[in-house]
Fold this protein.
Amino acid sequence: MPNKQIIVQELAASYKIFNPKAQKIALAIHGWADQSNTFAELANQMQNVQIIAPDLPGFGNSQMLDQPASLDDYAAWVKDFVAKIQLEKLDTVIGHSNGGAIAIMLLANKQATAGRLALIASAGIRNQDRAKKQGLSFMAKPGKLALKLLPAASANKIKRKAYKKIGSDYMIDEQKQETFKLIIGKDVQDLAATIDTPTTLIYGEEDAATPPSYGKLFMKQIPNSTLHVIDGAGHFLHQTHCEQVAKFL
């Protein structure tokens, strides 16, 4: 599936369209250090849905924003992306991991509307004791959490590099360090509580980065929501358990 190119906020951006002939349209937002192709397996299981997936700024083939970016900045970028490709109607917004937090901000702030929201292993829970402990720890060594959120192939590649402890592109690029700190410092639970869009929450039972407890907290906040926990699944369940995820969607 070739990438399409476009200019968003005066920066080069890349995106993919899976199942382009399908009538239903879903916008899919990937997580930290991932890219649009992360949804390829899921799209194969959802042939009746056209899935439009951008590479977020700084990842995949999209140019990085000019300064460290917050969740608000990413949500504003997605809003402008949707406007640029003239997506007038979204049947579904799908967000994985950090993409879920961006999707929550997007809908809560009325920057986009959709008939349905699907949060897969969504991040954005920061105020719980576990998240606080993680935040303090990873602010000191932010690359650890960054590696946990990476796709396995990318994480393994980074670990093999000649940097003794972390040594990822993330650690080399100071701007991404600052962006990551901004992201992990933002809790979106209060915003989630304002969403009236029917929401499907899907988490992996064995996910250590965004555990099922996050899904339970979001289910309490989002009035019209349903939670599914997939046995044996980890953080990238939309790849490893794509048939089950597609069924819930």
Observations:
- The CA atoms of residues 21 and 50 lie 7 Å apart.
- The domain at 4-125+187-248 is CATH 3.40.50.1820 (Rossmann fold).
- The chain is about 40% helix and 20% strand.
- Strands lie at 4-8, 11-18, 24-29, 49-54, 92-96, 116-120, 199-204, 225-230.
